[in-house]
Amino acid sequence: MGSRTTLRSVAEAAGVSTAAVSYAFNRPDRLSTQLRARILAVARELGYAGPDATARSLRTGRANAIGVIFTTELTYAFSDPYVLALLGGLTETLSRSRTSLVLIPFAPVVAGLTDSQVSESLDAVRRAVIDGAVADGLTDDHPAVRALADRSLPLVRSSETATGRGVLIDDRQAGRDIGHHLVELGHREVAMLVSAPLAPGRLVDRADEAALYPYSRNRLAGVRDALPADARLRVVSGGGNTSAAGRTAAHTIIAAADPPTAIAADSDVLAAAVVEVAAGQGLRVGHDLSVTGFDDVPAAAPAGLTTVRQPIHEKGQLMARMLLDPDGTPDRVILPTELVVRASTGPAPGRRGERSAT
Amino acid sequence: MGSRTTLRSVAEAAGVSTAAVSYAFNRPDRLSTQLRARILAVARELGYAGPDATARSLRTGRANAIGVIFTTELTYAFSDPYVLALLGGLTETLSRSRTSLVLIPFAPVVAGLTDSQVSESLDAVRRAVIDGAVADGLTDDHPAVRALADRSLPLVRSSETATGRGVLIDDRQAGRDIGHHLVELGHREVAMLVSAPLAPGRLVDRADEAALYPYSRNRLAGVRDALPADARLRVVSGGGNTSAAGRTAAHTIIAAADPPTAIAADSDVLAAAVVEVAAGQGLRVGHDLSVTGFDDVPAAAPAGLTTVRQPIHEKGQLMARMLLDPDGTPDRVILPTELVVRASTGPAPGRRGERSAT
DNA sequence: CTCCTCCTGTTAATCGATTAACAGGGTGCA
DNA sequence: TGCACCCTGTTAATCGATTAACAGGAGGAG
């Protein structure tokens, strides 16, 4: 009376031990059919729906859930095709083992956060009842990653510098592929558009490069590798990887006194924004201006976007599997990428026909 | 040694009570600055990252998380714009209170599930460590909803028959709005395309109607209300609310011996698929065939789709707020909808020019 | 000098389960 | 008859914290 019904109250009402009630719900074979039936009947009568989830988690040490950290505004995250594909892969694998996915919010790192904001944000990370977590695109020294590591939770990362487990792609090689493709087409004036926590359109100098996401840095390095000495590469911030930010940045680039002949974007979202702006300015994409993306999201093919395909869905599946079955999976996997050439890239203007063999 | 470090081991190492350690982490003001510093130092030394999340949840009775049930394949869910908008609204509000969102998988009800499949699926629902849950588009007698109710967790629904709390729209009125619009345009041969757990393209008879989602039934009833006696309405299953299923259904409808002049779809996704198929068959949408959708998702405007706008994002925000602050929010809210007329609807063929005033 | 408060820290009950170890009775078999 | 083994069910320790109630000492007011 008064207090909620628990395993114990059911046991008392049925005149058995709490162990018996527990077995009635968890191990039917440990009890005679009649006793189990009686216990279940008493439970139903008392409105007892089964063992409490939290208590069970505490006792068994399993939460049946894994977490994923969101450092961007969650609202935006649900419009990012990369994130969606990753979530799709994760949940597909998780749901097979009846494991939930916990979306953990962390204050977006738009501007610098004060310490107290960070520690407040960390609260959600610390309080999350999970068996492991996925941190995609976060550096080792990100507060959330650190908090997770401190909790000594199994962690899967997508970062190159992964300590512990990771599923990654060779961003630098992918960058080279893009670079070579553009160079082959005769481009010597290239702009790289990276999503970064910097104002969209802003020119990224060497000092700023530290602020870039690790994958951006690597892709950038790859593009640099591929460019010959006589080529010029400028790096421009695309802001938060949204269409709007991409358009802003695209305008800046295109309006420059000496615009590039090719723009290599960090993501298909940004690339699509560039294509849109370019078309709006009367430029023929693939002729007057070449544009490349990254990821090969579903929208890339219809848009005719040259891009690097990475198996995002599989990445999510694999990350989930690594957390569910640590022993049956490797600690580190590098997934293949592939340059997909479509209509958005073509010979550099003024050099048409010069395309070198293969 | 051997065992993980806990609040207790820190207390012992520091030579204080466990209460002191707890206070050091949760209530700085209860301890002298020096003692707190000493405890924190000892904790750091021992690699103690703070109170265990699960134990804390058990003791305080708060999980700092709310759940949302997914009955469709999760992979698909992340491509459904309605779901994404709802999730966006939910997470936006939740992240402000540092609350996580738990995505709980439940076996998709494609075909009939066996009892054991259902009870296996229910496991995730029972084990979810949450303070409340959102069940969108599920009937009262859905096993997952029942399981949640049995756990006596606060529940927010979007269903008309909501027991407890709910955020809903007037689906029937929305249906009437669509019906009136089409009737005004002179349409008398109308097909309603509903997402339902039935084969796409299949004609839905009165018996099948019980299998429709509640919102579909209500929208259907609304359309029926609006149609005059001389009009004919056929109901067709659009399957699982995907483009692919929608295209299949669209083909069936358009290929019929006596095709309708207007197709009212249950969702913008289905409507867009219809438009695509119709265009592919050389039909001019808005002239030869009128098409309406539902939701007014982002893609609807560019596609020129006539549809009913519902404030999905706000719905999500409100649902979250209801769970976070039960006392400060009403039990039941009906959100407004609005018919948005665009180019996909026009006068019925053979009646052009007859459009009645307003 | 006495009484009252405030400040710090401790005691101990409690949240709601799981499960290894044990025990008693029935069966099967030699 | 004796012994081993299987079936059922119980005992009791444990998972890792939170927090109301209490207590001792310091300082202030009267």
Question: Summed up, what is this model?
Answer:
The structure is a homodimer of 358-residue chains. By secondary structure, chain A is an alpha/beta fold.
Structure notes:
- The structure is a homodimer of 358-residue chains.
- In chain A, 41% of the residues lie in helices and 15% in strands.
- With 358 residues, chain A is of the alpha/beta class.
- In chain A, helix 12 links the parallel strand 8 (262-265) and strand 9 (290-292).
- In chain A, helix 1 crosses helix 2, helix 6 (81-96) runs parallel beside helix 13 and helix 7 (115-127) crosses helix 8 (143-150).
- Chain A is elongated, with a radius of gyration of 26 Å.
- The termini of chain A are far apart.
- The interface between A and B is large, with 52 and 52 residues.
- Strand 2 of chain A pairs antiparallel with strand 2 (100-105) of chain B.
- The structure holds a DNA duplex (30 and 30 nucleotides).
Q: Which two chains share the most extensive interface? A: A-B, 52 and 52 residues
Structural class by SSE content of chain A: alpha/beta
Supply the number of structural domains of chain A. Answer: 3
The shape of chain A, in one word, is elongated
Quaternary state, please?
homodimer
* Spans where pLDDT lies below 50 across 5 or more residues of chain A: 352-358
Stated plainly, the CATH topology of the largest domain in chain A is called: Rossmann fold
| Name given to the CATH homologous superfamily of the largest domain in chain A | Response regulator
Q: How helix-rich are the residues of chain A, as a percent range?
A: 40-55%
End-to-end gap of chain A: 81 Å
- Report the strand count of chain A: 12
Question: What is the helix tally of chain A?
Answer: 13
| Sheet with the most strands: spatial strand order of chain A | 2-1-3-4-5-11
Q: Per DSSP, what share of the residues of chain A sits in E-state strands of 2 or more residues?
A: 5-15%
Output the helix-strand order of chain A: HHHHEHHEHEHEEHEHEHEHEEHEE
- In the CATH hierarchy, the architecture of the largest domain in chain A is 3-Layer(aba) Sandwich
